[in-house]
Amino acid sequence: MYTRQTTRRIVLGGVAIGGGAPVVVQSMTNTDTRDVPATLAQIRELVAAGCEIVRCAVVDDAAAAALKQICASSPVPVVADIHFDSSLALKAIEAGVGGIRINPGTLRGGKRALERLVAAAKERGVVIRVGANSGSLPRDILERFGGPSASALVEAALMQVRMLEELGFYEIKVSLKASSVSGTIAAYRAFATRSDYPLHLGLTEAGPLVPGLVKSAVAMGVLLMEGLGDTIRISLTADPLLEVDAAWALLRACGVRQRGVEIISCPTCGRAEVDIISMVQELWPQLRAVEKPMKVAVMGCVVNGPGEAREADIGIAGGRGQGVLFKKGKVVAKLAEQRLVAELLRAVEEHINTEQTTG
């Protein structure tokens, strides 16, 4: 079985990464960064769902200028996503970001620009994330390795790391992303044998919601179960809130971290006498902000539901026009069907308040 190397510890805007710190959940805003109110509103939504570091695209001077207010008001550290323009990276650092995402080899201005950027990052304690992407590898590396293989990704990432190390900079986080599941897994595994920098896990261009979730869960699930990964983003062509939900679901499934509500619900079938899909869709937006780890069940059978979801802290099971509220598999109330969701939410709130009081 693959054995993980211990990664070194870095700190991004007060958040510890690597060196045994918990795996950190990230996402990226899809608002126009220049629209400060909209960007801050989305950041707050992401944080309520469990996002711990947020990345914003910086496309021009106006976006860089907007970062000053965004960083000052954001409840979590902000990372600036920069392509090519070192002057934007410098302005982002001055604005107060906790980290920047760049490719040192593609910065305009070459080594001198990188030197200025590294000096500013050192002065402000800013983390730099580098990494390789299968869709944008240098031509010489592609030719040497015959295409965007795992070995090519590793070499490209190591090249970027060396560029920073030569300038005495070591507050580095690394990603190695491919759209291929097997390629991503192989690249991270190989890099971990050659470097101890913290790893940001991700799968590039994962795709729409369902295919993206499946591919990301397979790739990152394997890596997490092997002990790899210090930060994680599940990139989806979907609402960024779903990225955060998916990241926490994956961390819970792998036994890496516990946070929030895990909904246990039965699949739909011809035996169900209540609309399970509608119930879960109504419940989830209201349960997303719960931080305390707990299991909530939504079952479609009054007879077998409580027993099948015995490990749930709280649950409901619906029948024809009625249902039951149960705790740890024991029925505590019989209710009309239209009251099931509201009573479940009230029971969840009571459960949280009770735990806080006794805790």
Provide a descriptive summary of the structure in words.
This protein has 359 residues and is α/β, with parallel strands linked by helices. It folds into two domains: 10-253, Dihydropteroate synthase-like (TIM Barrel); 261-358, Sulfite Reductase Hemoprotein, domain 1. 43% of the residues lie in helices and 19% in strands. It has twelve helices and 15 strands. Strands 8-7-6-5-4-3-10-9 form an eight-stranded parallel β-sheet. Helix 1 (36-49) links the parallel strand 3 and strand 4. Helix 3 (86-95) packs parallel to helix 4 and helix 7 (181-192) runs parallel beside helix 8. The radius of gyration is 23 Å and the shape is elongated. The relative contact order is 0.09. The model has no long low-confidence stretch (mean pLDDT 90).
Count of the separate structural domains: 2
Q: Per DSSP, what share of the residues sits in E-state strands of 2 or more residues? A: 15-25%
Widest sheet: strand order? 8-7-6-5-4-3-10-9
Q: Give unreliable regions as ranges.
A: none
Arithmetic mean of pLDDT: 90
CATH topology heading of the largest domain: TIM Barrel
SSE layout and pairing:
Layout: E1 10-12, E2 15-17, E3 24-28, H1 36-49, E4 53-57, H2 61-73, E5 78-81, H3 86-95, E6 99-101, H4 110-124, E7 127-133, H5 139-145, H6 150-165, E8 172-177, H7 181-192, E9 200-201, H8 209-225, E10 231-232, H9 240-253, E11 261-265, H10 276-287, E12 294-299, H11 305-308, E13 314-318, E14 322-327, E15 330-336, H12 340-358
